[in-house]
Amino acid sequence: MNFITILAIAIGLCMDTVSVSIAAGCNKHHFKPKVILRYALILALFQAGMPIIGWFLGERVAHLISEFDHWIAFALLALVGGKMAYDGICGHPEKMKLKISSYKVVVTLAIATSIDAFAVGFTISTLGQSIWYPTTIIGVCTFLFALTGIWLGRKMGHRFQKSAEIIGGFLLIAIGAKIVIEHLCS
Least C-beta-crowded within 10 Å: which of 8, 30, 73, 79? Predict the structure, then answer.
């Protein structure tokens, strides 16, 4: 995978992080910079860690599914992307008030927003790619997008929350389609 594809995957994965970060930023409570940095770091660590777990699992079974791995990659990315887009279209962001000073809340958010990254790590393993470069990019993007989301939430409220999830969902679906097309054309 080239840098642009990895960056597109990272951005797609970050959209749910942006969404919850905007919701956190909309909170009337103003958090200290230390709390905001800790929040972004925890989300980034989970978002980078889940693909590693998925990749190691995928490495163990890749030889069993090599004939149809591109369809698995497409299905996983389409399911995750479809769910993200659906949540963005049908969700109710006004119900989300997040207290990011609570470790319990932040870890729950980190797990919830990084489950899709597990599927991406599995997909990367089926493509025979190394996981370390993509996870570095995913982690850095997540950290930056979490900070940006909080800032946007403070400045502009809920206006961008739905759009971020919808765009991220369709981006992941497009990447899955690209994988299938590349495999069929090779």
Answer: 30
